[in-house]
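The pair is set out directly below:
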Amino acid sequence: MFHPADHPLKRGWVGRIDGEHVIQLAAQTLQAFFTGGASAREHAVYPLAGVRLLAPVLHPPAVRVFDDQGTFGFANPAVIHGPGFEVGSARRVPIDTVSQGRLALLPRLAAVAGADGALGGFTVAADWRRPELPPPKDRDFALGLGPVVVTRDALDPEGLEAIVRVDESERHRNSFTGFDWEAARAHAAEGTTLRPGDLLVGPALDTIDFLLPGSLVEIEIDRIGVLRQTVAR
């Protein structure tokens, strides 16, 4: 999802990145794009440098966060935020929590369900936490997502390398390995229906804690891109 930098839109448009350009597609949401068979008419073309990328999925039907391929908990679909978001700027997070530097981050890889409950693609997930609160309220205020979704047929998630930087200094580097995404998808779908746009968020690589107000946090995953968010001052 994106909008032109000089024409902000709350929901944005679905687009396809082609080199240094973004092509607007005739779909209202990414969910609608997948429902339509992952194809849509092409409209206007914009320079990538002249657009703002948004969270690829807003208000998904469900968010499942996995610790392993057979265990998950539900997260809040209403707190998803895209690139450039200031974590803690929403009124649902008390300012004293942010000022104490008590936020933590769990870098994750997330899958987006496509048509017929299949895995439609992958994106970067920033699982923000407030360590002083018990689960699941500790993560009930922000889940970062973006900057893009790479479709399943174009990306093998096994072995993707991730780098976490805080204020441009590397804090963690590791690879996503050993998670059976198809088994996780089947487990999530058992007894229910996965709808286009449902999120399956994989296990975290580590916990990056004591993030200070004003910190710029970047999660870069190979072949997907960099999700940048900031801890609000």
Notes: The chain has a mean pLDDT of 92. DSSP finds three helices and 18 strands in the chain. The first helix runs from residue 30 to 35. The domain at 63-231 is CATH 3.90.850.10 (Fumarylacetoacetate hydrolase; domain 2).
